[in-house]
Amino acid sequence: MFKVINESFTCKHCHHQNDPLPGSCRNHCVLCLHSLHLDEDGPGDRLSNCHSLMAPVSAYQNKKKGWMIVHKCLKCHKQIPNKSAPDDNFQLIIELTTPAPPPT
Asked: What's the CA gap between 55 and 23, in Å, rounded?
């Protein structure tokens, strides 16, 4: 069951104050893109018992949903894609799509 929770929150990673997302639900920080592992089987189900920090590990463009950010749980390592929001740090999203340069 999808639970609509769209309220302000302070990021557990960078401590940025995030406002609610008009017209949708915000599940990650607009500044550092980190999230919390709250969902287990689908967006908004809030069934996870983990509740650990999730780091953004990659990003890609979906033809129907737009930019997607892949979050990886730092505790259980589950990976979950999430839609980006219009006010997300787009520079960081682009960096997540670019492979790191080889070591010198």
From this structure: 25
Round to whole Å and give the CA distance between 52 and 76.
8
Task: Give the number of C-alpha atoms closer than 13 A to the C-alpha of residue 64, restricted to the C-beta side.
Answer: 0
pLDDT tens digits, 51-74: 899 999 999 999 999 999 999 999
At 48 the three-state DSSP class reads coil
Domain boundaries, the chain: 9-97
Quote the strand ranges of 3-97, DSSP E.
Answer: 9-10, 17-18, 35-36, 53-62, 66-73, 79-83
DSSP state of 15: -
Please tell me the distance from the alpha carbon of residue 26 to that of residue 8, in angstroms, as a whole number. Answer: 9
